[in-house]
Amino acid sequence: GGGVIGCAIAYELAKAGLAVTLVERGTPGCEASSAGAGMLAPQAESSAASPRLGLGLASKALYADLALELRERTGLDIEYETGGNLHCFLDEGDEAVGRAACAWQREAGLKAELLSRADALALEPDLSPEVRGALFLPEDHWVNNPRLVTALATAAALERVRFVTGEATVLVRAGDRVTGVQVGEDQIRAALVVLAAGAWSGQLAATAGLRLPVGPVRGQIVCLEGIPRRHRHLLHIKDHYLVSRVNGEILIGASVEWAGFAKQVTAEYVRSALDAAIRLAPALARLPIKATWAGFRPWAPDERPIIGAWPGLDGLVIATGHFRNGILWAPITARLIRELLVERAPSMDITPFLPDRFAK
Ligand SMILES: Cc1cc2nc3c(=O)[nH]c(=O)nc-3n(C[C@H](O)[C@H](O)[C@H](O)COP(=O)(O)OP(=O)(O)OC[C@H]3O[C@@H](n4cnc5c(N)ncnc54)[C@H](O)[C@@H]3O)c2cc1C
Questions:
Q1: Which ligand 1 atom sits closest to the C-alpha of 325?
Q2: Fewer CB in a 10 Å sphere around the end CB: N or C, the chain?
Q3: Best of 243, 327, 328 for a ligand 1 pocket test (most atoms within 8 Å of beta carbon)
Q4: Which atom of ligand 1 is nearest to the CA of 295?
Q5: Whether residue 178 has its Cβ less than 6 Å from ligand 1
Q6: Are residues 207 and 330 in the same domain?
Q7: Which candidate, 262, 265, 261, places its Cα nearest to that of 253?
Q8: DSSP 3-state helix, strand, coil percentages of the chain (rounded to 5)?
Q9: Is the CB of 319 within 6 Å of ligand 1?
Q10: What mean pLDDT is predicted for residues 94-111?
Q11: What is the separation, in whole angstroms, between the first and last Cα of the chain?
Q12: Do 126 and 269 sit in the same domain of this protein?
């Protein structure tokens, strides 16, 4: 799969000298990896210290160098932005949640700050007077994720990754070994297959008789056209967030829905997104709607990514289940897969992410 995970891994492995073929049925980034909002927000995405938080912090730390490297190699700017994340409070409930988050994050050694209404408005003058304060997480960042996937795919091509456009219909298995994938009439043989097919990974694993419980969780986004650019921070209000891109786009995300593979934008979601955004920053009401879209997050039941070799079977490595954080976790996933395959020693404890927990 040529999403952010497959492209990041292909690039990393090719740089390490491996011969890589990437099979993608559409174009690189055509699914969740372009539908996402691009937040690199391990702190906002965590409610306690956990292995997921550690993975997110380790991955975010790779982004500044990755942005430079991709710019040098491909000429593409992934718009890595470091403005930080403002969680705005509208009522006492929000404030209580923000205070608790601030407390545990500081205890965990992370930067977090409670802001008064005046301080929040000083950072983002667009905010409604209804905002009574905010939790500021200065080290949550973001990128332009469609550009990121394009840059990774371009860099991978420059490293001689072979791109095959077509649908992998079967993971080919000979006894206790996966030997390749079937694409149309062709069988692509490989010493090793990395399964990185996003929300479709469970279906593809099933063709080799494996039970990998990964499926789609739909996310919808409404995109406004806000030129000139209005916000310099990620903004959160209750269940919604706003991501401001360099080109003036303001993404209002996102729903979290178990709706199968129905790629629909619903009236209900559009209404809730616009209500939230306009409540947070009333001037947004006058902006044109540029686009709406939906995508499928690859979800595993324990909401942890699945990274590592499938136990008891040679030739198959899994890299999926990145759910709400695949853009954030892509660089560390690629690095860990390279360390597993080339150095044979991952630089961090990946026990919580191994596929072993499902391979029963
Ligand atoms: C609305 C929304 C908002 C999000 N916001 C964020 C965010 O702010 N920050 C963040 O970190 N993450 C975010 N995410 C999550 C993130 O986008 C995903 O975790 C990530 O994109 C998953 O990447 P992937 O490569 O595993 O999957 P995908 O991008 O879905 O890629 C899988 C690829 O495999 C291909 N494929 C599938 N089956 C086959 C087959 N049989 N043969 C050939 N090709 C195949 C598909 O065409 C696809 O291109 C968001 C997701 C959504 C939907």
A1: 11
A2: C
A3: 327
A4: 53
A5: no
A6: yes
A7: 265
A8: 35, 25, 40
A9: no
A10: 97
A11: 25
A12: yes
* Structural domain range at position 104: 96-139+216-299
**173-216 pLDDT per residue, tens:** 999 999 999 999 999 999 999 999 999 999 999 999 999 999 99
> Does the predicted interface ipTM exceed a cut of 0.95?
yes
71 with 159, same domain: the answer is yes
Q: Do residues 42 and 314 make contact, with C-beta atoms less than 8 angstroms apart?
A: no
Looking at residues 140-169, what average pLDDT do you find?
Answer: 98
Residue closest to 22 by CA, chosen among 145, 193, 240, 200? 193
- DSSP H or E stretch at residue 224: strand 215-225
Question: Within this chain, do residues 16 and 63 fall inside the same structural domain, yes or no?
Answer: yes
Does the CB atom of residue 221 touch ligand 1 within 6 A? yes
36 lines ligand 1 (CB under 6 A): yes
pLDDT tens, residue by residue, 255-296 = 999 999 999 999 999 999 999 999 999 999 999 999 999 999
Query: How much is the average pLDDT of 70-80?
Result: 98
Element (H, E) at 294: strand 289-299
Ligand 1 atom 10: residue of nearest CA = 325
Question: What integer pLDDT is reported at residue 230 of this predicted model?
Answer: 87
Work out which ligand 1 atom sits closest to the CA atom of 241: 8
Length in residues, the chain: 360
User: Is 10's C-beta closer than 6 angstroms to any atom of ligand 1?
Assistant: no
